[in-house]
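Lab notebook, bench 4. We co-purified these components, and the gel suggests they stay together. Before we commit to crystallization screens, I want a quick structural picture of the whole thing.
Request: model the full complex, all chains together.
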Amino acid sequence: MKLLEAIKQCSFKVDDFIRRLLPDEAKPRELYAASRHLIEAGGKRLRPFLVVQSCIAVGGDASAVLPAAASVELIHNFTLVHDDIMDRDDFRRGVPTVHRIWGVPTAIIAGDLLFSKAFEALLRCAKHISVSPERVVEAARRLAEAVSTIAEGQALDMSLSGRLKEEVVSEEEYYEMIYKKTAALFKVSCEIGSIIGGGSEEQVRALSSYGENIGLAFQMLDDILGVTADEKVLGKPVGSDLREGKCTLIMIHALSNASSSQRAAIMKVYGKSEISVEELKLVVKLLEDLGSISYVLDLAKKHVDSAKKSISILPESGAKRLLMELADFVISRKY
Amino acid sequence: MKLLEAIKQCSFKVDDFIRRLLPDEAKPRELYAASRHLIEAGGKRLRPFLVVQSCIAVGGDASAVLPAAASVELIHNFTLVHDDIMDRDDFRRGVPTVHRIWGVPTAIIAGDLLFSKAFEALLRCAKHISVSPERVVEAARRLAEAVSTIAEGQALDMSLSGRLKEEVVSEEEYYEMIYKKTAALFKVSCEIGSIIGGGSEEQVRALSSYGENIGLAFQMLDDILGVTADEKVLGKPVGSDLREGKCTLIMIHALSNASSSQRAAIMKVYGKSEISVEELKLVVKLLEDLGSISYVLDLAKKHVDSAKKSISILPESGAKRLLMELADFVISRKY
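Here is the predicted assembly.
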């Protein structure tokens, strides 16, 4: 099966499971509608796909792991709902954010509900005959730790973005932030899938490393799309990372290689919400001239190569092939 | 051992465990400090006490259940941090609330971190030799469901409080709200303790009913203290439930029994943040004259009786005796 078709097939099953966890008739209606909002608005469902393929790749039963696949998508959306409040973002996936429609209090609870539903879902894996309770406990423990890591990552993201305006942020600090904020959930998705699927310790480690590396590459490409992709494709305003003053590796590279006049030109738009599209385009051109975008893309490619190398030890299978293709997709995608 | 002394002894162990989960040296420092803030400010630790005594009452090992005891306190504090943001409360436990000190974004993440740490803690119970992974999965599943219920309860609380100003709220709606918002966590604390402790289905059901009933009684007394207790004892401004226009059974009873002039007097302060202490005192006197406070206290007493009756099937033990005493304490407490 082609990769995009396989991702789509998987997303149908995951979405169906999530709809039953967050049904239309559940009360309070507003709260459940707010919880479903971003999930229904779109998303590629890459994380659940990783759970399912990691399970199949170690010889596990895809039907046993579906609740776990849903759980990582719920966690992902929980973090989006809360992050949008913190970042004061008005749009995501082409629709107004949850707090814009229902207000901050309901958005906070909607995020909390997605979080608890994620654990309800994951723990249901124990009902499947092929899954031992030991493995479910181990998967749930790792998911809980990953969520703590994501919380640390979001806090780091806020503090680094504030700092970059005045002082140097190192590449190490950037790596720690995106590892925690983004890669940890990709990593744990692969771990959960292979643990529930009955994988050996070596197989779980291999998929864990794969997930971490494509997570890092994914975030790097997100940063690139954040300055180069257009609004329709992105589902949110162009250049919002620049306007919001987000700390990205592109910015770190650009600021440490810029002349003082180039630096001044970048700082004129960085963190300024009211910049024009023309000003934005000039800065994007500058980031390209400084080689900052290709620098980040090259690094992302290296992580994709590491990811593919990590899972070379797995037996050949359709799932392994899809994971190999997915690694390339992560940095070739346009959205 | 005396009840209050037993609660105190238990809280030392729980606090010690929580300190190791949220250590001073953990980074980002601010995030962990924000997460510890309310826990360090006080609290009676009744929920962890319920976990531990429910475990011992069914013959379980207290040391095996300590991580589970910590987990319900972490969940409790997670809900407090997020509720304070939603209710715009400035003080709790005699200190400024988390969002007042660190701002809303950090408070949201601090709550999320407490939530994930709660599951990290609970899942550690599986490390103890006496606890089967099946029981840990079952306990974690119930805790996740309880958190979903609490989220529903917080949403209900917000909508009922808005509605009471204009229309009638029924006692059934009030019961559903406090069951979800408060009693569900007391209930699941007893369930988790008895499940991890190896209790029979009948014992778990008995303790579940006990927990639910003292949870309902606890919230009713909270509502009473909210209008009668003084500020020093309460740790937050007197009459904040009235000022914030909270939906309590006292208010439902008073409004449905008040003459039109009494109703007008109540509505003059209800939901008004700028009321004076004198105006507040007049309304408290009116609530007493209408019999609304004694009405709620009588109902709370009935739930305490039901709670005690529920656990009469348990074998005699020190833990059972403490749980019986705790039921009485819940409605005799002054704070």
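The longest strand of chain A covers residues 91-92. Worth comparing against the SEC data before the next meeting. The mean pLDDT of chain A is 94.
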